[in-house]
Amino acid sequence: MEPEELIEITLKGEDSSHEFKSNISHGSNLVKEVIAFSNSQGGIILIGVNDDGKVEGLSDDDIRRLNQLLPNLASDNIRPPITLNTQNVSLAEGLVMVVSVPEGANKPYMDNNTSIYVRNGASTQKLQSREEIQRIFQSSGLIQADATPVASSSLADLDVQYFETFFEKEVGGRTKDLEISLPQLLENMKLAKNGVLNYGGILLFGSNPQSWLPVFDVKAVAFQGDRIEDINYLDSKDIKGRLSDIFQKTLGFLLDNIQHVQNNQGFNSLGEPEIPRIVFEELIANALIHRDYFVSAPVKVLVFSNRIEIISPGHLPNNLTTDNIKMGISNVRNPILHSFATKLLPYRGLGSGVPRAIRAYPKIEFLDDRDGNTFRVTILRESSL
């Protein structure tokens, strides 16, 4: 790092990627920050800089002491161990040690007390809630939300007729003709275990999914204007049911609340939607399949006079970016839902949905809000352009 770059960082202040420390007397003072950066997207710790960005500088003795202290900190106080890179930058006020903490490849990282820390804006926070801890294990691929058992559920909560119809259509036979029992079949299909349905089993084939998972629905509102604060709205629905039901009802809500144009169609035709249907199909399917089911919140579908927003709980998984998904690069967060979606929804599962939507209607914007833990798709309406 060049001195000019370091000074620029100090002027901007601490943020989600930068932490300032005037000095370090004990390695334990730095353990939380190193763990937090490793569990997040990596970051830089400047030692020799006050919290307010003022450079205090370090002595040569400080540098020698820190060079002995930091390797022991990373290997003895953090599990699994982390490799830190250091660089000494000379400024007029003195030396500043730049400690680079890479994003970890083996999350979650924790201290010797099994405490887990993450970076949230400019602060380091200890994970407390079950949901937060589950999400970081999810990001490492150690657990999947859709495989989580739904406590106290049973095969009585399965819509057997719906499942039988699906099975006969996809496999070409009836479950009663198989040599294995229905509970064993569901377990083989990764929809249940020991007679208990998981999130995937309930969401895909449950008779009343929201009785078990009440927040996993879609909140849809059509406003008169272009602001969410507007108390006047044209339509509002809480859309519930199995994923296939939610998909169809959400698609219907959007098509009912946008304009339709005649183009070259006959006078009595319904007209074509101002935004191609395939755009909604792809984006709704993605929202339902790829959302973070460790976040207890609904998908929001908001229709404004100048745009349509689809807001999914959970930011993009791992290192996936909005540029990646535009190119068709995908990351499967919910493998059970993903495997069945190609059979229950107009979903191909090849990462082609977003590129296909953009080709059909280029005026789509994506925002991966990691601090707010949401993913937002904004479809600009032609009437507002």
Describe, in short, the structure shown.
The protein is α+β, with helices and mostly antiparallel strands.
Structure report:
This protein has three domains: 3-128, Methyltransferase, Cobalt-precorrin-4 Transmethylase, Domain 2 (2-Layer Sandwich); 146-209, no CATH class; 218-384, Heat Shock Protein 90 (2-Layer Sandwich). The protein is globular. By secondary structure, it is α+β, with helices and mostly antiparallel strands. It starts with a helix and ends in a 5-residue tail after the last strand. It contains 13 helices and 18 strands. It has helices at 3-12, 28-39, 60-76, 130-139, 160-171, 182-188, 199-205, 209-212, 243-256, 277-290, 322-326, 335-344, 353-360; strands at residues 18-21, 43-47, 78-79, 85-91, 94-101, 110-111, 117-120, 123-126, 192-193, 196-197, 218-223, 233-239, 260-261, 272-273, 299-303, 307-313, 364-369, 374-380. The protein is 34% helix and 21% strand.
List the helices and strands and how they pair.
Blueprint: H1 3-12, E1 18-21, H2 28-39, E2 43-47, H3 60-76, E3 78-79, E4 85-91, E5 94-101, E6 110-111, E7 117-120, E8 123-126, H4 130-139, H5 160-171, H6 182-188, E9 192-193, E10 196-197, H7 199-205, H8 209-212, E11 218-223, E12 233-239, H9 243-256, E13 260-261, E14 272-273, H10 277-290, E15 299-303, E16 307-313, H11 322-326, H12 335-344, H13 353-360, E17 364-369, E18 374-380
Parallel strand pairs: 1-2, 11-15
Antiparallel strand pairs: 2-5, 3-6, 4-5, 7-8, 9-10, 11-12, 13-14, 15-16, 16-18, 17-18
Helix pairs in contact: 9-10, 10-13
